[in-house]
Amino acid sequence: MILVTYRPEFTPPWLDLGHVTILKLNHLGRSQVVDLICKTAGGKTLPEAIVEQIAAKSQGVPLFIEEITRSILESGDLEADGGRYVLRESFRDFVIPSTLQDSLIARLDRLGVAKDVALTASIIGREFTYELLDAVARVPQATLLEGLKGLVRSDLLGQRGTPPHSRYIFKHALIRDAAFQSVLNARKRELHERIADVLASRFPEIAETEPELLAHHCTEANLVDRALAYWRQAAERAAARLAYIEALGHVARAMKLVAALPENTERDEWELIFLVIEGPSRMALDGWDSPPAKLLYERARAVAERLGRPAEVFRSVWGLWMGAHSSGQHARAHELLQEIYALQKQTHEPEYVVQAHHAGGSQMVAEGEPRAALVHIDQLLSNYRIDVHGNLALTYGAHDPGCCSLGMRALSLMMLGKLDHVEGALGEALDLGNRLDHKPSLSQAHMFCAETFIVLNRLDEAEFHLNICVPLAEKYSLANYLIPAKIMQGWVLVLRGEVEAGVRQAEAALEVLKSVPSRRFHLPIRIGIAGLAKVAAGDLVGALALFEAALEAASTTGERWYEPELLRLKAGMLLTPPQQRADEAEECLVAAIALAQQQAATFWELRATAALAKHRVHQGRPSEARDLLAPVYRCFTEGFETVDLKEAKVLLEELA
Do the domains spanning 211-425 and 562-656 agree at the CATH topology level? Predict the structure, then answer.
């Protein structure tokens, strides 16, 4: 069981889940207020008039009740009389703080030296160690110890361990806030700078593992250059840990400092640094097609060109290509690919060679050019070194170029009919993803595996990879892989007999995908797989509508690699009663064969030709069927154990 508390202004995204129970915590009632006052007072009762004032001013908020009660007890205005407290003076002279802030400040004011300790500690944060406070406070050790004891005794601080190895925490964030707000701004800046210096010089392990802490103190001390350096380190470290939301938060803090700098080269340098960090994190979190990512890459390109930085120009153009490629703007993506080639030719650095061919291979697959894709992929793989390029995902598209290209290699080999080599490429992608231990790249590799095995009608293998991909994508909030995997998982569920649940999942995931207008990477096959789920569920009318929608997506986006298959699948629906339209089906199959031949996609050609041959048999034209299928079958030199080639062989033998 997980227990979560939140304030009324927060709207949890999980409210509609069936296993979630909402409990509203109302303000305490009159009797509960009295009980809490008595408990805070050590079991003694307070004068009724004071209880009434506490109840009225606290409005039933537990923290306020406790703090006002403690403030009154520490004021010296009450004295114990057996099991109760009584006023020393007239009630008319007694004043209860009107706000929680006033109450907390009043308590701090009565602590003497402990107040100064509390104020200094509040600049460090809600939690702090004795060792750090001792280094920052610059007071005698005896004074520091006495102050800490007073704060613990007053229940303002909690303590774990004993000095000098003790840790402390303000009992409530509001206590720390009250102390913090009592410090003058000049004193705050002085303490923030002192804390940053102490952390850097005496606690290097914190500077290494929590650079955001030093970045914060340098920011508050107005040490801009040091703050930016630490924010950069923090953002890069968070992105490497796949903590993309955290990374973007660090970038946002840094960009506020950058915006305040004078408009000069230094400002441009810092802005470019953080734009390059932000791009991949934004793509990982929002999708490669992220409109904000497009805007920041356009900005990064402008700044990089102004500074004369070809490396950053290349990275920015590559980011723009990735955005166009994955949002279905393949005409624009092709133009940007030519710019990438031109920029890559200006240098022979392996990074740019690898990433240029990464873009080239993926773009050629999308455009239905598997042979050209393999040229780029082979060039990439011959230049790729895991020790040199294994961290390129941090700079380019939040996924590894080697894993991606091996997945694309599998798709290209399948299209070309090199069926015995497909699993080898997929295995290499998985092996590289595991060696890198980069979860987005590994999730992508499993997604490619599932997609390929669905095309090959291999249910068990597809299910195996989806069972790994989905949890990975969910755990790390990987939008690029989660929704497509959910569509594919719907197809699996239908074939496993969970027809209603599978169709519902595939439809829901597809709607989520389509709800983001820019998310168009592999959209035709995504819609097509949802159609296959409908076919398996027996909803042929719904399947036909989806196959037609997928063909429309292929036409509008320019992603043509799966189009021959979609034409074949549409034809299959048109040849099935009650929506039988044989002439239109034949047109689809003829178009599929022509497009497959144009792509040199022998596997698509075989499937479409086999479907047309079967149609000819049903028309009583067996010799035409044999003449259609035999030449295509003879093109294959491998893959004879696959279902498609076995079925083609059986059909040819029947027609002999």
Answer: yes
Strands, E, within 266-418: which ranges? none
Angle between the N-to-C axes of helices 370-383 and 401-416, in degrees from 0 to 180, rounded to the nearest 10: 150
pTM value? Answer: 0.80
Pairwise CA distance, residues 198 & 129, whole Å: 13
CATH of span 562-656:
1.25.40
pLDDT of residue 5: 78
The continuous run of DSSP H or E covering 651 comes out as helix 643-655
**Given this model, what pLDDT does residue 359 score?**
97
Q: Helix/strand/coil (H, E, C) string of 412-456? A: HHHHHCCHHHHHHHHHHHHHHHHHHCCHHHHHHHHHHHHHHHHHC
So where are the chain's domains?
Answer: 30-98, 104-209, 211-425, 562-656
> Given the structure tokens 């030093």, which residue do they identify?
214
- Asked if 526 contacts 487 with a C-beta cutoff of 8 angstroms, the reply is yes
Q: Which of 530, 515, 593, 523 minimizes the C-alpha distance to 560?
A: 523
CA-to-CA distance for 218 and 196, rounded, in angstroms? Answer: 6
CATH 3.60.15 fits 104-209, yes or no: no
- Per CATH, domain 211-425 is 1.25.40.10: yes
pLDDT computed for residue 98 by the predictor: 65
What is the token pair recorded at 435?
A: 């060696």
Residue 333: closest CA among 321, 344, 350, 345: 321
